[in-house]
Write a structure and sequence with these properties.
Organism: candidate division WWE3 bacterium GW2011_GWC2_44_9
Family: In the C-terminal section; belongs to the purine/pyrimidine phosphoribosyltransferase family.
Oligomer: single chain
InterPro entries: GATase_2_dom, Ntn_hydrolases_N, PRTase-like, PRTase_dom, PurF
CATH class of the largest domain: Alpha Beta
GO molecular function: amidophosphoribosyltransferase activity; magnesium ion binding
Catalytic activity: 5-phospho-beta-D-ribosylamine + L-glutamate + diphosphate = 5-phospho-alpha-D-ribose 1-diphosphate + L-glutamine + H2O
Number of helices: 16
């Protein structure tokens, strides 16, 4: 626990005027990917309609809002910020004016925007205060004002997009879907009753009754309009999907590169049990994302699993809060310990990752205060030693506890009786994909897309 979500995007090109309604249902399903704001832009071919605000999906939309967005094209976005604080000014989708030519929803992050800024500045466009998503939208808008089609605008602009991006871009009568050449962020599309739907995760297709077709390929642009669907190769693609999608970010009922996220997480737990053989009375998962790994650990080790941490379903994820003090307060609101289960027991506590260590420390304290005799803390991923620059809001490298502490030192810091990580090789075996298909930058420090001046912030140790 401790990593902020990436954003979630969902889009529809419909043969009816229900695109916003389907997008709304898709955003519900993708709520786990962003909890600071939500928005939908729609079009019926004449102009843009927009509704967005800070808050959860349930807070942002009312029935009248969705009814006011009738149209056959819509794109939606659930956001957590990778730029500044939770400001309403930077909610998405990006639409600068209802008379604009283009609206954009972005999942990912561009760590290098020098070319974009230089291009826009030379065109007389102000860039001060704009985030990466807004810079991309400005570039597309510039070309469309000059008379280019949506497709031509993307072709003219995409080489300036250096980083991770799964984009939904719409004009008043077309929808374009674009994925970066490494495919770091997931993006798929499906079909329902002649309508095309696009989503950050396949789990959202089930919510709207769509059938999965395939993933958008790295470096591909898909265009949908009244003529149907067309595909264009923008760049030579080389799949490098973020390994953290398997470990934590994606919903367990999603499919990534043909792999069930749930089954991968179970296998992570199985590998963890093979690498860390411990004697204990019970295995306790930290809900919800660590549950499959704990099941796998329990099945492999023979140690019974107990759900001794009860989650308050009405408290959203702790790491969405902007300050550590607020995160700490949220932990006690979010999780309660069932004392009768842990009292007098040796406990193996399982989580999917450890970042700063503050959450782990609090949970170990809660278990021991509830009578646990010993608490062993196991993590179903390798140590996070490097910051992410592709859309995860990791802290600076010096704040990543595993970047400067050994497992023994971490154990002492959080008050556990032992700490163990899954090995890098164990992670690869559990995921079941070749290393070359994965972005493992948080673990290995290998960044497949240029991170610009951020390179100077990275320290490598043997």
């Amino acid at each position: 626990m401790g990593l902020k979500e990436k954003c979630g995007v969902f889009g529809v090109y419909s043969n009816r005027d229900d695109a916003a309604e389907l997008t709304y249902l898709g955003l519900w399903t993708l709520q786990h990917r962003g909890q600071e704001s939500s928005g939908i832009v729609s079009s019926a071919g004449r102009g843009f309609k927009i509704h967005k605000n800070v808050g959860l999906v349930a807070q942002v939309y009312r029935k009248k809002d969705i009814e006011g967005l009738k149209g056959n094209i819509a794109i939606g976005h659930n956001r957590y910020s990778t730029f500044g604080k939770n400001q309403e000014d930077h909610t998405q989708p990006v639409l600068f004016a209802r008379r604009s030519h283009v609206a954009l929803a972005h999942n990912g992050n561009l760590p290098k925007v020098d070319r974009l800024r230089k291009f826009l500045t030379s065109a007389g466009i102000l860039v001060k205060g704009l985030n990466d998503s807004e810079l991309m939208c400005k570039a597309l808008e510039y070309h469309m004002v000059k008379g280019k089609s949506l497709q031509e605008a993307v072709i003219a602009s995409h080489k300036m997009f250096t980083g991770a991006y799964s984009l939904l871009v719409m004009s008043k009568n077309q929808l374009a879907v674009v994925r970066d050449p490494c495919g770091i962020r997931p993006l798929s599309f499906g079909k329902i009753n002649g309508s095309y739907v696009f989503s950050s995760e396949t789990c959202a297709f089930k919510a709207v009754g769509a059938d999965y077709i395939r993933d958008v390929q790295p470096g591909e642009m898909v265009i949908v309009d009244k003529s149907g669907l067309s595909s264009y190769k923008l760049a030579d693609g080389e799949t490098k999907i973020d390994a953290f999608e398997f470990i934590y970010f994606a919903r367990p009922d999603s499919i990534l590169l043909g792999k069930s996220v749930y089954e991968v997480r179970k296998r992570l737990g199985v590998r963890l049990a093979k690498e860390h053989v411990l004697k204990a009375d019970i295995v306790v998962p930290i809900p919800d994302s660590a549950i499959p790994a704990a099941i796998g650990y329990s099945q492999e080790s023979g140690i019974p699993i107990e759900h001794a941490l009860v989650k308050n379903r009405y408290i959203h994820r702790t790491f969405i809060k902007p300050t550590q003090r607020q995160r700490d307060n949220d932990i006690t609101l979010k999780l309660n310990v069932i004392t009768e289960i842990v009292a007098g027991k040796d406990v193996i506590l399982i989580d999917d990752s450890i970042v700063r260590g503050s959450t782990a420390k609090k949970l170990v304290q809660l278990l021991k205060a509830s009578g646990a005799r010993k608490v062993f803390f196991l993590i179903s991923s390798p140590p996070v030693k490097f910051p992410d620059f592709y859309g995860i809001d990791t802290p600076k490298q010096q704040d990543l506890i595993a970047s400067h502490m050994t497992p023994q030192e971490i154990s002492k810091f959080i008050g556990a009786d032992g700490v163990g990580f899954l090995s890098f090789g164990g992670m690869l075996k559990a995921i079941g994909l070749d290393k070359g298909l994965l972005c493992t930058s948080c673990f290995s420090g290998e960044y497949p897309i240029d991170i610009g001046t951020n390179k100077t912030k990275i320290v490598y140790t043997s």
